[in-house]
Amino acid sequence: GAVVSQHPSRVICKSGTSVKIECRSLDFQATTMFWYRQFPKKSLMLMATSNEGSKATYEQGVEKDKFLINHASLTLSTLTVTSAHPEDSSFYICSAVRRGGPYEQYFGPGTRLTVT
Amino acid sequence: LAKTTQPISMDSYEGQEVNITCSHNNIATNDYITWYQQFPSQGPRFIIQGYKTKVTNEVASLFIPADRKSSTLSLPRVSLSDTAVYYCLVGVYSGGGADGLTFGKGTHLIIQP
User: What phi-psi label fits residue B95: left (phi over 0), alpha (psi between -120 and 50 degrees) or beta?
Assistant: First the structure.
């Protein structure tokens, strides 16, 4: 199968601090990884597309200086929430598309971020 | 960007077949149709993907009419554990990027005993 992991699964941080979330494709190489956020009882909202070796593409309304994305290899992408505020508290989910197809996303288990 | 429309919620009973329909009137020629299942506080799980006609796997079937403006996810003999939110996603991946990754509101399926 195609397994995607996220670390940490839960994190609580204080307002003003930065938090890094890792997304790894464990048994396949991913040309593209995506980052979503999801508020309670709401749908997933795409934040950015992360391509290995190039800058991430952010969706409209998502601050690239606040949500730093690094895609260092074909199996790892990181999302850093800088200067976190309580309104950044959310469920962050990554997904990966396998290099060479098929054209389906494999999702990670998600990271619950709580900013106090 | 193909927008999707699904019923907000559906109810059924254990052992029944459940059909969830998704409308995507402006689907593009290269777009695939993919369905995901999501439980609370978990990432979505891939269920099935198709381009046209009918696709079947061990957990579901996907029916796509000739005009591809809609699709129906069919879950045979549901159980309580099938209670979840189901998302229909229409889009395509190309050249390292992606198009159509806009999740709709999803369908909250509730299975009762």
Answer: left
